[in-house]
Amino acid sequence: MKNPYETEERAAFRETVRRWVADKITPNADAWDEAGDVPWEIHEQAGALGAFGFGVSEKYGGLGFDDCFMRAAFSEEFAKCGATGVPAALGGRGISIGPIEKLASEDIKDLCLKDIVSGTKGSSLAITEPSGGSDVARLKTTAKKDGNHYVINGSKTFITGGMKSDYFVVGARTGDEGLAGISLFFVEADAPGFSRTEIERKMGWWASDTATLYFDDVRVPAENMLGDENLGFIQIMHNFNYERLAMIAGMVGMMKVCLDASIDYAKERETFGRLLIKSQVIRHKIADMSARIDMVEAYLNQICHQANEGEMPVAEICKGKFSASKALEFCASEAMQIWGGAAYLRGNPVERIYREVKVNAIGGGSEEIMRDLAVRQMGL
Ligand SMILES: Cc1cc2nc3c(=O)[nH]c(=O)nc-3n(C[C@H](O)[C@H](O)[C@H](O)COP(=O)(O)OP(=O)(O)OC[C@H]3O[C@@H](n4cnc5c(N)ncnc54)[C@H](O)[C@@H]3O)c2cc1C
């Protein structure tokens, strides 16, 4: 579908990413998914492409500009590898760079930002806790002031990239109960009292490590607070916008793989003496998939345009995310049906995408919470 906001620069960036994915990622995606790991050089290659440099100053190796269309193009093209555990393995960095770039002291940025942006080192965002992820305002991890330090106690779970990250952006309670008592902290993985364990045997995102983190009297300098005390909730919500935008774009990429794979298969597979593509039932499935993809893509383009104009469209991002995960659920399911038993076999891209539907419906804000936030943005 034609993007009215496409420019030569954006098209060139997309093409560069597309070629990188086709050459370096797609041929290995299934093997990495099965192995549960992505070689570290892929993080560095993504860094060299500028994937982690949006909105980051050139001083720290960033691009020196931001562009939501390019962010979306990267996520969409990367997801087309058909094993989204691979992009997810790099994804912790994408959702934690923003708070570091925007809120950290120059000393902290000097320490870590260049390495994170280049893909040399990993970073993760740690908000969700064993007691829950939807209700961020109720998080329980505490950070108590002790002289010119804070002492962090508590636990985080489902942290993407958490086993390998060197740096963490951690939400902790510094004030009263509720959303006005939360602050963000920069924590290094070698801080005494910090430990982590891997969450094994997930439904999907096999190539991406997911961790539970433990903070047992972890002392960090007061300077490690990111932004203002007790204003962390607003910063977390702001950061979610970019995560959700990237997830919508990734879902567009996955849906396109489902559609293309369905068309290719239906053009070759014969049943009842004729090609599947001649069957009206199959043709309607393809029309329905294509329509849903177009609608999510057009909506995403509008979101990117508004975000670039400086009007972050929070309600639309929420509506876009749950609409995209519902559309992905539909496209993945219809693609499975068109392929029949062949897609039930491990390693088929349609099978891989089908098992990634739920993480998109739950992670980064579940469908229920997205609907709730969208309605609140309507003033209800
Ligand atoms: C693979 C994976 C990677 C992740 N990576 C990260 C990460 O890097 N960093 C991070 O901080 N978190 C991460 N998460 C956590 C994710 O953001 C949470 O799983 C998500 O926010 C939901 O929280 P929860 O699982 O605790 O569900 P809960 O908050 O316990 O909710 C359970 C269910 O109830 C629904 N629900 C909750 N409240 C309501 C309500 N009022 N009305 C109706 N329904 C409701 C929810 O939608 C959900 O479906 C990841 C999760 C997964 C699965």
In summary, what is this structure?
The chain is of the alpha+beta class and 380 residues long.
Overview of the molecule:
- With 380 residues, this protein is an alpha+beta fold.
- It has three domains: 111 residues, Butyryl-Coa Dehydrogenase, subunit A, domain 1 (Orthogonal Bundle); 109 residues, Butyryl-CoA Dehydrogenase, subunit A, domain 2 (Beta Barrel), CATH 2.40.110.10; 144 residues, Butyryl-CoA Dehydrogenase, subunit A, domain 3.
- Helices cover 52% and strands 15% of the residues.
- It has eleven helices and ten strands.
- It has a four-stranded mixed sheet. The protein has a four-stranded antiparallel sheet with strand order 2-3-7-6, with helices on one face. Strands 9-10 form a two-stranded antiparallel ribbon.
- The chain is globular and about 80 Å long.
- The model has no long low-confidence stretch (mean pLDDT 97).
- Bound molecules: flavin-adenine dinucleotide (FAD).
- Flavin-adenine dinucleotide binds next to strand 1, strand 3, helix 10 and helix 11.
